[in-house]
Structures are given as structure tokens and as C-alpha cells.
Amino acid sequence: MPRLSLTMWLSITALGNVGVMIPLALAVAAWLGIGYPRRYVFGWLALLGGACGLVFLSKIAFLGWGVGLRGWDFTGISGHAMVATAVLPVALFVALLPARGAIRASGVAFGMVAGVVVGVSRVLLHAHSVSEVVAGCALGAAVAVAFARLAWRAEAGRIAPAPVAASLAVVAITLHGIPVPTQQWITQIALELSGHERPFVRARWKAGHYDAPIRRTEAPAPYRAAA
């Protein structure tokens, strides 16, 4: 792995932000709906939605209840690694659907490599552990491969590769670097569901501190004088 500057790794990790990858995934779905049978749209959204659900649940379980694998330093599936490894291969695959099988396969492979690089950036920036990124990349790759198998024999529609690729590139470039506070949203949901005032924190959990965050206490009902 070449030595890159901190700025470059931050730029790479920003590519895997859901603020980029989810709009890109929806753009892929739109092109599928325009040029191919609708079953491919539903298949793609179902596969990606299921994977996003697993990421969400794994994060909620740790933040709200401290569920994880301490020996593996695992507190939840890396969302950046998952969506990048799922969306980038499928975006290239859809753009190259009219091409020969070998070219499509090359696009999928290149997209997976790009997704893995996003995952590596999460480890190098200390945002995730290796186990969390491996889980994310594995889940994302499973989504990409499952969709490629589903749509491999799709007959080429009336869409040429150039406009598809250009539009997907515009989406990625336009939204790159725009922050989306997904971690804050997930943390808030975890606290609402668990009833805790504070989320579980990796450092204390990893050190073996099992003390649960303080539970919220309901404010006492206002005193009402007897009539």
C-alpha cells in the first residue's frame, strides 16, 4: 500500500460516506429502472437495504447495550467499507452492462478494490478496527456479487455506457466531501431505544469496564394541589 498523505486518506474515506454512496446507489437504481426490467431495481435495493440494516443493527447493539466482540475489537460493521464495497462495483457493473462479460467482471473487480481501499482508510484513520472493516468489506462484496449474478444475463437496454458512467461520476464528485452526521443519528436512536443517557464507548468497553451508561430517569410529575 503506497504511503499517502493524511489529506489523501481523508479524501478516500469521504468517498465511502453514505452521503455519497446512497445517492450513487439510487442513481444506479434509476438507470436500471430506465433501461432494464424492474426486478433488477428491486433486487438491487433489497440487497443493499438488507446490508444497511445489518450495519445499523450492529452499531445500535453496541452503542445502546455494549454488544460486541471484545477479543476482536468489534463494535459494529463498518458502514463506509460496506457501502463502498457494495455500491462501487455495482455502479461500474451497471455502466458496463452492454459490454462483454470480461469487461463487466473487470469493472466489478476494480470497484471492489476501490471499496477495500476505502475500508483501509477507516483503519488508518482509527475510525474502525480491522475486524470491523473486514466485516464491512465482506458484506459489501457479498451484495455486489449477488447482484452481479442476478443481473449478469440482463439484455442490454437502450442505454449506452457513456451517459451512465458520466452521470454516476457527477453524483460522486458533486457530493464528495459533504458531511452527513450518520453516527450522531445512530447514537441518538440507540440512546432512545436503550433508555441510556450516554452511549457505550469503545475505550472503556475494550478495557473491560462493563458498567452500563446511566439510565434516564423520568422527571417527576408536576405537583397538583387537591381541588
UniProtKB/TrEMBL annotation:
Keywords: Membrane, Transmembrane, Transmembrane helix
Keyword Transmembrane helix applies: yes
InterPro entries per record: PAP2/HPO, PAP2/HPO_sf
Ranges where the Phosphatidic acid phosphatase type 2/haloperoxidase domain occurs: 73-153
Coiled-coil segments on the chain, per record: none
TM ranges: 6-34, 41-65, 77-96, 108-127, 133-152
Protein name listed in UniProt: PAP2 superfamily protein
Species in which this protein is naturally found: Caballeronia arationis
